[in-house]
Amino acid sequence: MNIVIIGGGFAGLNLAKELLNHPEIQVTLVDKNNYNFFPPLIYQVATAFLEPSSISYPFRKFFAGKKNLQFRLGELVSVLPSENKVILSNGELSYDHLVFATGAETSYFGMENVMKNAIPMKTLNDAIVMRNTLLKNLEKAAICKEIRKRRKLLTIVVAGGGPTGVEVSGMFAEMRKNILLKEYPELDTTASNIYLVDGGDALLAPMSEASQRDTLEALTKLGVVVKLNSKVTDYVDDTVYFENGETIKTKNLIWAAGVTAKVFNGMPAESYGRGRRMATDAFNKVNATQNIYAIGDTAILTADNNFPNGHPQVAQVAIQQGINLAKNFKASLQNKPLKPFVYNDKGSMAIIGKNKAVVDLPSPKWHFKGFFAWFIWLFVHLISLITYRNRLNTFYNWMVAYFASDQSLRMIIRPDKKQQ
Fold first, then answer.
1. Alpha-carbon distance 323 to 333, whole Å?
2. Alpha-carbon gap, residue 279 to 298, rounded angstroms
3. Helix, strand, coil percentages, rounded to 5, for the chain
4. In 10 A of CB 295, how many CB atoms?
5. What beta strand segments (E) does 218-265 contain?
6. Cβ burial, residue 155 (10 Å; 0-12/13-18/19+)
7. How far apart are CA 202 and CA 219, in angstroms?
8. Neighbouring C-beta atoms of residue 315, cutoff 10 Å
9. Which of 1, 94, 204, 343 lies 20 to 30 Å from 30, alpha-carbon distance?
10. Phi then psi for 53, rounded to 5 degrees?
């Protein structure tokens, strides 16, 4: 069985790992990057509390010595379902089964200026660009004599009240408290505001009311200005515009407000459902196809009775779908019945700041906050990293940050344009 997987995130990599060393299955994983990375910790790279290598690992290093796993660096251009073939940016591949595990990309809801000028928070490259942008703006503010321009350079607006928006806002508040005035004494007379804005009426909308309430309280105590029911409509000339007529002057609009799936050439229109996600049956097979599957954020599966509108686009869904599909591939080779996907919700969590987090567990319905929740968040994210090396690096950096309330990773490193 020749299986081609497009995308090496949570879904794709867990599918490949489950098929490891199977004598009758050959797997080729295709990704536009030559490394896997851990999206839940992207914001810590962006705020210079972790280095990129702490949350990433090369595919070829991971696949080394694994005879039935191959890696191909490339980007999908189109699919030819009638020929069981995919066209890549650097060639083509044939398949018996094709699996889309392409995740999601940032959605700007059709706002061109926001897309051009805001700072996204989706990829490792986004995180490095964000880190460089924020550090450069701090350096500009340090020598800026005009108070209004300086305030724009220091003001940060985070759009999106989900886990990413909450976590990055809390991190900025901790940095302002423990680092900013110590390293930038020139700014001791300038107020810097951090805004967290969301179009809904609560932060962390999918989580419990207790988590929403505790998060709002903790962020407010840290000095973050939370603006709910505040939908961004434009961002032009260093000004964020809201639907209610309000505006905020800033050089730093960080966009964590939404994601959308990707559409691929060659796939039938009937294969797509809500949010451009590929609609699948209970076994993750894409509608209107015979041997094409979709898992993770790019898929919407409505056959799970507990999630009739599709599953949330979170890591646990992607991991569990990858593992379940691998078991079904192996079962099909043995002519055994396939197992429909049923999501096991293990809970939700978000970190807010040092010793501050919220955790919701579904069964029984428990809610935790404060230090214990913070410790659970650290433990779960640490063991979820792909290798022991990643875990050790991250643990070391976290311990330094915890006891020193600081890190030494704030370096502006830019590629030479001549080499791009």
1. 16
2. 9
3. 40, 25, 35
4. 33
5. 225-227, 232-236, 239-242, 247-249, 252-255, 259-260
6. buried
7. 13
8. 19
9. 343
10. -70, -15
Work out whether strand 299-301 and strand 278-280 pair parallel, antiparallel, or are unpaired.
parallel
Residue corresponding to tokens 């898992």? 295
Angle at 219 (CA atoms; ends 217, 222), nearest 5 degrees: 110
Closest of 174, 194, 183, 184 to residue 402, by C-alpha: 174
**What whole-number distance in Å separates Cα of residue 188 and Cα of residue 96?**
63
Q: What is the distance between the terminal CA atoms of the chain, rounded to a whole angstrom?
A: 39
Instruction: Check residue 338 and report its DSSP letter.
Output: P
Q: What is the DSSP string of 80-132?
A: EGGGTEEEETTEEEE-SEEEE----EE--TT-HHHHHHSEE-SSHHHHHHHHH
pTM of the model: 0.92
SS3 readout for 134-161: HHHHHHHHHHCCCHHHHHHHHCEEEECC
From residue 108, give the alpha-carbon distance in Å to each of 121, 259, 272, 307. Answer: 12, 8, 20, 26
264 close to 89: Cβ distance less than 8 angstroms: no
One pLDDT digit (tens) per residue for the chain, 420 residues? 999 999 999 999 999 999 999 999 999 999 999 999 999 999 999 998 899 999 999 999 999 999 999 999 999 999 999 999 999 999 999 999 999 999 999 999 999 999 999 999 999 999 999 999 999 999 999 999 999 999 999 999 999 999 999 999 999 999 888 888 788 888 876 678 999 999 999 999 989 999 999 999 999 999 999 999 999 999 999 999 999 999 999 999 999 998 899 999 999 999 999 989 999 999 999 999 999 999 999 999 999 999 999 999 999 999 999 999 999 999 999 999 999 999 999 999 999 999 999 999 987 789 999 999 999 999 999 999 989 999 999 999 899 888 877 777 788 877 655 544
